[in-house]
Write a structure and sequence with these properties.
There is one protein chain. By secondary structure, this protein is mainly beta. The strands form two sheets. Strands 4, 5, 6, 8, 9 and 10 form a six-stranded antiparallel beta sheet that branches. Strand 8 and strand 9 form a beta hairpin.
Length: 136
């Protein structure tokens, strides 16, 4: 138990960002009626965002669910739409995913898409502002 408590205490200490790390931080958000999403990440190279936090909020009692996905632009300009992360918790629920993104073809820019779904049918979508990778 002591080891676990110590490990948790270490995780709770916030890291101090260097000026270079602060320059590599990217954030964004957008929303549609019924769904809101956001992300925070750090570019660590031309090919990787780590850590990356995605968030989807269901903000309407409409029987639909909110979802968020990462969209990246590769160094050659191709757009990559990553898998949807779905929040099935209902009105007022807020779900977060802590992850990372890596692409051997490079990540020149990043943004998120936020969607409102009925089952697998996309009803509404918005896209955050694109943020460029300072390492590209």
């Amino acid at each position: 138990m002591l080891v676990t408590a110590g490990a948790l205490a270490c995780l709770a200490i916030p890291a101090v960002a260097s000026p270079a790390a602060a320059d590599s931080m990217v954030t964004g958000s957008c929303g549609v009626t019924g769904a809101y999403g956001a992300y925070t990440g750090f570019f660590v190279s031309k090919t990787r965002i780590d850590p990356l936090r995605l968030r989807a909020v269901d903000n309407a009692a409409d029987g639909h669910h909110a979802a968020v996905r990462l969209s990246t632009v590769q160094n050659d300009g191709n757009l990559v739409a990553w898998s949807w992360h779905r929040n099935y918790g209902g009105n007022g629920s807020d779900q977060v995913w802590d992850t990372y993104a890596t692409d051997a073809k490079g990540i020149a820019a990043v943004r998120i898409d936020v969607g409102l779904f009925e089952g697998n049918d996309l009803l509404k979508i918005c896209t955050s502002t694109k943020k460029d990778n300072p390492y590209s």
